[in-house]
Design goal:
9 helices; single chain; alpha/beta; FAD/NAD(P)-binding domain; seven-stranded mixed β-sheet; five-stranded parallel β-sheet
């Protein structure tokens, strides 16, 4: 029997791999990062229950690793997909890890002794990592990766590793995997807030993005879950969330709603109030889009927690006297005010992943005007493409939340399972 290849190791890819493998079909899960988990692994809580994100995700990650029919390929990228349903050939480029995965135990002795600190992409740049590192404590597979670009070859990691798992040399490899069907769940990227220059992102240290705030509020993040200003490390007296940054904005060609921004701003605002009830929290919104099960009740709960919802959009963010000033119009009253804040959080929207676009163009699968994948029928076939045997799941077709991503993953898995059982050897 041929296998199914799942591209993308976020929550959608993980769910799809598990669903297919549980039907006794071999699966290869391909992820370009050192660990599976995707964006969900960066989050502290999930709405509307405020459950711990990793408490939901981590067991699924472990299930994938332990499943006898699932093979995980991390630090790997798909370069081409050829063939037809029942007989695909997926070419995978395996990037060097500079660590022998069969020997590494993930003890992190090499991490502790490494003298190099560089930008940590997993922490959205708020924290730092070593030149040899694990992106976060619950990585799967539980092995380190050596960043050869920033490694200074001091030799300390080689000397301290009693199992001699750290490699001085490693090479890129190419593998061709035969598959009956392919599920593409490569996710999204966040809108680059620098494009909205009026908000002063990266110009003012206390203007941060929603993902950076997620890492600040996360107990495993660089501040241990404490909300701190990046400028001076102080607890802010007031925090303002600005909605629709990179969404519903015709000036930058982002006419669509990113679906999750209202809800994750409400979630993070409530988390602030739980950690620091004295902090004033305001959300500047265009419309509150609480469309899911329990979402409207979640919004009411946020207001009851003392969060101010103000229907306004600031024209700019101005540096004040040890604070930030947001001139705006309250569109419900018509009043012009200047809001003062110690921290501004930009609720950045979702964008189509450029690497996904490249794969789709190679396959001849059309994209919509926003760069997301066009399915054969958004209502009747939301996971199918014009290429039989190739299915999509998660946010590759549109911005969506975690429950919707998991639902589409299940649908794509069932379609891939049917193809494999009817065309496999």
């Amino acid at each position: 029997m041929r296998r199914v290849v799942v591209i993308g190791g976020g929550v959608a890819g993980i769910q799809a791999a598990l669903d297919v493998a549980n039907h006794h079909i071999p699966v290869t899960l391909i992820e370009r990062e050192p660990s599976i988990g995707g964006h969900m692994a960066q989050l502290d809580k999930t709405f509307p229950t405020n459950d711990c994100s990793m408490c939901i995700l981590s067991p699924k990650m472990v299930d994938v690793q332990r499943h006898p029919l699932i093979t995980i390929r991390t630090l790997a990228e798909v370069t081409s997909i050829e063939g037809e349903v029942g007989d695909f050939r997926v070419t995978v480029r395996q990037h060097p890890r500079y660590v022998e995965t069969n020997l590494c135990t993930g003890c992190e002795d090499c991490v502790d002794i490494c003298p190099v600190e560089v930008y940590n992409r997993f922490d959205a740049g708020v924290g730092v990592r070593k030149a040899i590192y694990k992106p976060h404590p619950q990585v799967v597979p539980n092995v380190v990766v050596r960043d050869s670009e920033h490694c200074i070859e001091c030799g300390l990691c080689y000397d301290i590793c009693g199992r001699e798992a750290v490699l001085r040399e490693d090479t890129e490899k190419t593998e061709v995997i035969e598959a009956a069907s392919v599920i593409i769940a490569t996710g999204y990227q966040l809108f680059d807030a620098r494009r909205k220059e009026m908000f002063g992102y990266l110009r003012y240290p206390d203007v941060i993005t929603s993902l950076e705030f997620e890492r600040l509020i996360n107990s495993s993040g660089p501040t241990g879950g404490e909300v701190r200003r990046l400028s001076d490390g102080a607890v802010p007296r007031s925090v303002v969330f600005v909605q629709c940054v990179g969404s519903r904005d015709m000036q930058i060609g982002k006419s669509y709603c990113s679906s999750v921004c209202c809800m994750y701003a409400l979630k993070n605002a409530m988390l602030i109030r739980e950690h620091h009830p004295e902090i004033e929290v305001t959300i500047l919104y265009n419309d509150i889009r609480a469309y899911g099960k329990g979402y409207e009740e979640y919004c009411v709960r946020a207001e009851a927690a003392g969060i101010r919802l103000l229907r306004a959009f600031p024209g700019e963010v101005i540096a004040g006297d040890n604070d930030l000033i947001l001139p705006l119009e309250d569109t419900e009253t018509g009043e012009f005010i200047s809001l003062h804040a110690d921290m501004v959080v930009l609720s950045a929207g979702m964008e189509a992943e450029p690497d996904t676009q490249a794969i789709m163009e190679q396959l001849g699968i059309p994209l919509d005007q926003n760069g997301f994948v066009n399915t054969t029928d958004q209502k009747l076939d939301p996971v199918g493409t014009i290429r039989p045997g190739i299915y999509v799941a998660g946010t590759v077709t549109a911005p969506r939340d975690i429950p919707d991503s998991v639902m589409t993953a299940g649908a794509a898995a069932m379609r891939a399972t049917r193809d494999t059982l009817t065309t496999g050897e």
